[in-house]
Amino acid sequence: MESRMGHDNLGFEPNSKRKISQHSSHSEDGPVRRKSNLHHAHNVDSAAVNSYEQRVNGEVNRTKKQSFSEVLAKINQEYETGQQNAHLEQSWIYSLCMRCRVEYSTPSWEPPGWQKVCPYPLCPPYRQFARIISIILIGLLLWTTAYVIIGDSAAPGGQLFQLAVLTVAANFGGFLISLTTLPRLIGMLLVGLLFQNVGWVNLDGEFTKVTAELRKFALVIILTRAGLEMDPKAFKKVYVTILKLGLIPWTVEFLLIGVLTHYFLDLPWMWSMMLGSIISAVSPAVVVPCLFRLRTKGYGVAKGIPTLIIAVAGIDDAASVAVFGIISSIMFTQQGLAFQIAQAPVCVLGGLGFGVFWGFLCKYVPEKGDAYVVPIRTLMLFGGGLLAVFGSEKIHFEGAGPLGVVFAAFTASCFWCGEGWDLEDNPVSTAFEIFWMIFEPILFGITGASIKIRELDPHMVAIGTGCIYVCIIVRIAVTVGIAFGDKLNVKEKIFVAISWMSKATVQAALGPVALKAVASQHRSEEEKHLAELVKNFCILSIILSAPLGALLISISGTKLLKKTKPMLEPPEGWRRSHRPSLHDISIIDEEEEREDIEGIADEDTAANTLSNAQSTSVFTVTK
Question: Is residue 140 part of a domain?
Fold first, then answer.
């Protein structure tokens, strides 16, 4: 009876607004409540008290037996140890080691004596170490098999072996760069540049055909991911804003690059416009990691700014690839004038038609209840993208293929979401993220390896640098100027404009395409020089804009965006998996949620108190 009518029984609580408990929405920790001060106040364990008094008295007696100098030396030793630990935790070595470590949700098994051999935090946990060893062993097995089948090309010194070494080194370089605020692709690009100019790789000759096909595979993965990450509901609501902010600044930069390179680099109009179609694309590979770091602090999530930036980046990439395909088809075709005139409408309509058809086919094939629906849908979408890119090139309508890839992925995603799949937890998107993890170091490694510093024209580098920065500044100004009526203030408009200045993925994939086309058709030396200039200009744009864009996004985000107060309850569409995705940037950070857990509104606490008071069961406050 006392437990029912005691101090902790809310049915007899005189003040209904008294804060009794606090709930947390963290599923992994369970409900968290503050323990009442009077909880079990009448059931104090006397044995525990006596034990505590005996332990304290024993400690005091032992302390009295020590001399004053011994006690003072012990205190000084503990103080120095604490200072050393604090100094260690503030050092850059400790910070670097902690950034290299991988956090796991479940405890990791370790062999006996592992901590003695590999102490924390200087060495990784055994699980991370074992994963690295397994990857190395798998790589050795694959290389041994390739050497037995292929022969000298896979042997040390062969071009296939050099490509494999370049890919592994590029991945490691990307990891080192990711420890800073820069995107991984910068490290991959620099590794390729280093390997080429110190003579460690040679991917010229017949092997250029292999690297050209690998770029097309990477392009299919890039465009498929762009289509899968587009939210049809959000696009339908703000399609006017997305199209306005996506196409108008893109068109301005496209035309400006064409005009500047025509007059300052003496490029013919067709070549300069083709270069403009490549340079005007935006790189989500640079933007997304930076936005993710800002999201963890709550910046910009209230107005959906990350969603807007990603959607516009996808529109820009699709427009760039489509226009590039149309221009390159006109430039490198050997057909008549009528065929060239028909390029633009046929490429646009053909790409749209194929994309809608293939996306519609992926809705019914395979059947949605199939046990292997995820891998089959993944292969269907990937195979359809490869068919679109390689098939359109075969029939000399290169512009239709990339457009078909984007719309096939977007159409299929719309149908799958209608069947119950979550856009933010699409398992096919997970598969293409794994594909991109494999092809990203390949793409940027071979792109960096195509630069030979000794062959660069200093005049082109100087003029190209000026053209790139002028176009970036003009694009930012145009974006800020046309972003009226979009519920963004001036600071947010500036940040959105800065986010679209980075170049990387499309430039790396399309930059060398013209050079490959010229070489395959045995064009003149002048056209080969122009194709080399286009390739070097694209790589220069990556080097100049990607690091600067990442730094500006990280620095200006905290200054220009409004910080949203974290919410206790997760918003609608909370991600249930830990898969990294573009949509991760729209979720409130959990760490700040834990820090702010005490600041919940009084109304919520009063409601919880009232509901508990009305309960007929015994109320017990637990910790």
Answer: no
**Which amino acid, 611?**
S
CA–CA distance, 225 with 220 (Å, rounded to integer): 9
Which has the closest alpha carbon to 277: 259, 262, 255?
255
Domain-embedded: residue 290: yes
Per-residue pLDDT reduced to its tens digit, 141-163: 999 999 999 888 889 989 999 99
**Predicted confidence (pLDDT) per residue in 371-402, tens digit:** 999 999 999 999 999 999 999 988 888 888 88
CATH code: domain of residue 261: 1.20.1530.20
| Rounded-to-integer distance, Cα 471 and Cα 65, Å | 80
Contact 321/223 with Cβ under 8 angstroms?
Answer: yes
Q: pLDDT per residue over 237-251, tens digit each?
A: 777 888 888 889 999
Q: What share of the chain is helix, strand, coil (3-state, %, to 5)?
A: 70, 0, 30
Torsion 428-433-434-436 (CA) sign: positive
Specify if 11 maps to a domain. Answer: no
Task: Give the residue numbers spanning the domain of 549.
Answer: 203-560
78 Cα distance to chain centroid: 44
Total count of domains within the chain: 1
Query: How distant is the alpha carbon of residue 545 from its chain centre?
Result: 17
Residue 213 lies in a domain: yes
pTM exceeding the 0.90 threshold for the entire prediction: no
